[in-house]
């Protein structure tokens, strides 16, 4: 049976997955050539660089990340080195959601981003499950970095310190926008901005909203991926010798040390 959606008619082979076992039950007949909306045979090779143990810090994924991030920032071809996909998963539904955010800080504990944590989907997901991942893709360098770990809110003081560096309009915007809530129209947002401006009128120092701030992803593992010829990529992953179990553990520098392993592409 064909399924009708807002975007049109999906192939009769499309079936939403409801359980993991559904993965095994897809129709065996593949879609015919003219039913495929995208069909992209391999065209390009990754040939820019390689990655081996002598090129990474033996202990710290943060130091290796810093080196790679510097390369991305120095490259005139990488337009947004700090743009990164943050993925979260709600429990108990298991629904996963990803969105771009900006990396704003790296320290010896983890990778810090800033956002709304009350109304946004990421905030709602993280309230049920603190595990999150970050994925960077620096296409001109043919490099990917994957971070998996536990997300911990920065303290209000730490968030305030970053918030104070933002342009006034962005600080007002954080107060005004109920991020990811449905709003009637643009006027509603404009009015909320006016209200926030009135509230903080003439005030240079604005307090960071209690529902907004920094989130540090404390890694359990960090993978460095360098594209190679024939899809035989180089992958080195730092893994903790002791797994991260809880937000409490992630609030420190985390347990154990990191060991490095090579993964098959
Ligand atoms: C390149 C890029 C960078 C972004 N950076 C941020 C950010 O740092 N913080 C943020 O809250 N949203 C950022 N956004 C918007 C998010 O992608 C997203 O729309 C918003 O956070 C709401 O997502 P959620 O409801 O799934 O949590 C960015 C979007 C793009 C395209």
From TrEMBL:
GO terms for molecular function: FMN binding; pyridoxamine phosphate oxidase activity. SUPFAM superfamilies: FMN-binding split barrel. Pathway: Cofactor metabolism; pyridoxal 5'-phosphate salvage; pyridoxal 5'-phosphate from pyridoxine 5'-phosphate: step 1/1; Cofactor metabolism; pyridoxal 5'-phosphate salvage; pyridoxal 5'-phosphate from pyridoxamine 5'-phosphate: step 1/1. Residues 78-198 form the Pyridoxamine 5'-phosphate oxidase N-terminal domain. InterPro entries: Pyridox_Oxase, Pyridox_Oxase_CS, Pyridox_Oxase_N, Pyridoxamine_oxidase_dimer_C, Split_barrel_FMN-bd. Signal peptide: none annotated. Its cofactor is FMN. Residues 212-265 form the Pyridoxine 5'-phosphate oxidase dimerisation C-terminal domain. Its EC number is 1.4.3.5. One of its GO terms (biological process) is pyridoxine biosynthetic process. The keyword Flavoprotein applies. Keywords: Flavoprotein, FMN, Oxidoreductase. Pfam families: PNP_phzG_C, PNPOx_N. This is pyridoxal 5'-phosphate synthase. It comes from Saitoella complicata (strain BCRC 22490 / CBS 7301 / JCM 7358 / NBRC 10748 / NRRL Y-17804).
